[in-house]
Design brief:
174 residues, 71% helix
Length: 174
């Protein structure tokens, strides 16, 4: 059994591990590109998924609002009401920039998650934000938090029909 100190390749291995770790920390929204720069080759089963990844990598903001969201997602500012409203407007636009937003969901972007949670803390029954959190859960599992937000929404619902719909939504998301 070799220790890393005995093997000249060990220092190369540690350096490569540090580079990978750094890429994940500094470039979560374009991790595939960063990994390829480090010599890795990204392979996805199925042509559609590969096409989606390429589309995401090439996606860029198409307007000022989208640019504001990208700056928020890539930055370190806390969420506020204004950015939540910008998110809602862009997400619900007639032609959303799906590839751009999917990139942030797929990477489990912490700022996107904070924005969604911030919005749900103000409006716990916002079904679009609950759906956003459910979609993010696919890529960045957070079952306890997801269930907690759905239960909070159910607690706030006053109409019996709304509660039944809410319970169905929780079951479908889990």
């Amino acid at each position: 059994m070799h220790s890393d100190d005995d093997d000249t390749g060990g220092s190369d291995h540690r350096a490569r591990m540090r580079a990978v770790s750094e890429a994940f920390r500094r470039h979560p929204h374009d991790i595939v590109e960063q990994m390829e720069k480090l010599g890795f080759h990204y392979v996805v089963d199925g042509g559609r998924a590969e096409a989606d990844l390429l589309e995401e990598r090439l996606a860029s903001p198409a307007n000022f609002q989208q640019q504001s969201l990208v700056e928020y997602f890539d930055g370190s500012m806390p969420p506020d009401e204004r950015i939540v409203e910008v998110w809602r407007a862009e997400r619900d636009a007639p032609e959303p920039n799906y590839a751009l937003w999917r990139r942030y969901f797929r990477s489990g972007n912490k700022n996107l998650k904070m924005l969604i949670v911030f919005g749900l803390e103000r409006e716990p029954t916002d079904r679009a934000l609950l759906s956003d959190l459910s979609f993010m859960h696919i890529f960045s599992p957070m079952l306890k938090e997801l269930i907690s937000k759905y239960l909070a929404a159910c607690d706030v619902e006053e109409e019996v029909d709304g509660l039944v719909g809410c319970e169905r939504h929780v079951q479908a998301s889990g």
